[in-house]
C-alpha cells in the first residue's frame, strides 16, 4: 500500500480532531474536578442550563437562563439540599437575551442536590432545573 505524506498528514490531523471532540465537557473543570451539566426547557420558549462542579473542595454552581430576548426581568433562586442558598433578580442582556448566576457553596457529605428556579416577572414563565452531585 502506497500512502503519500500529504494523505498521512491529513489522516493524523483528522484523528487528532476526533479525539479532542470526543472528550465530554461534563468531565472537565478548571480545577480538574468532576462537573455535571443539565439543560432543559422552561414552561414556554426559554431554555435553562445548570452546571455544578468542584472548586477547591467546594461546589461551584453556574446557572443560565436564555430567552433570546434582552430586557426581561427574572427572579431566581438556588436551593442547596432543601435550603435557600442564593436569590436575586436579573435582566436578560443583549445580544444573547440571557443571564447567568454563579455561586460557590459548601460541599456537604454525600450527594448534594442543587436546584435553580427562575421566573419571568412579566409573563410568569418558570424555569426549573436540578443537579444531583
Written account of the structure:
The protein has 133 residues and is mostly beta strands. The chain is built from 1 helix and 8 strands. Strands 1-2-3-6 form a 4-stranded antiparallel sheet, with no helix packed on it. The protein has a 4-stranded antiparallel sheet with strand order 5-4-7-8, with no helix packed on it. It is elongated, with a radius of gyration of 20 Å. The chain starts with a helix and ends with a strand. Mean pLDDT is 83; it is low at 5-30.
Order of helices and strands: HEEEEEEEE
Query: Share of helix among residues?
Result: 10-25%
| Biggest β-sheet description | 4 strands, antiparallel
By secondary-structure content and strand pairing, the structural class works out as mainly beta
Give the neighbour order of strands across the main sheet.
Answer: 1-2-3-6
* Number of distinct helices: 1
- Overall pLDDT level: 83
Portion in strands = over 45%
What is the number of E strands? 8
Shape: elongated
- Radius of gyration, in Å, reads 20 Å
What gap, in angstroms, lies between the N and C termini? 51 Å
Low-confidence segments, ≥5 residues, pLDDT <50? 5-30
Amino acid at each position: 500500500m502506497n500512502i503519500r505524506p500529504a494523505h498521512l498528514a491529513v489522516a493524523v490531523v483528522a484523528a487528532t480532531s476526533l479525539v479532542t471532540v470526543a472528550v465530554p465537557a461534563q468531565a472537565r473543570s478548571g480545577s480538574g474536578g468532576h462537573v455535571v451539566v443539565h439543560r432543559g426547557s422552561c414552561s414556554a420558549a426559554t431554555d435553562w442550563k445548570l452546571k455544578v462542579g468542584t472548586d477547591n473542595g467546594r461546589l461551584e454552581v453556574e446557572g443560565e437562563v436564555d430567552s433570546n430576548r434582552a430586557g426581561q426581568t427574572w427572579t431566581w433562586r438556588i436551593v442547596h439540599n432543601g435550603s435557600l442558598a442564593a436569590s436575586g433578580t436579573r435582566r436578560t442582556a443583549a445580544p444573547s437575551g440571557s443571564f447567568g448566576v454563579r455561586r460557590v457553596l459548601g460541599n456537604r457529605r454525600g450527594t448534594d442536590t442543587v436546584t435553580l428556579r427562575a421566573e419571568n416577572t412579566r409573563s410568569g414563565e418558570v424555569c426549573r432545573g436540578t443537579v444531583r452531585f
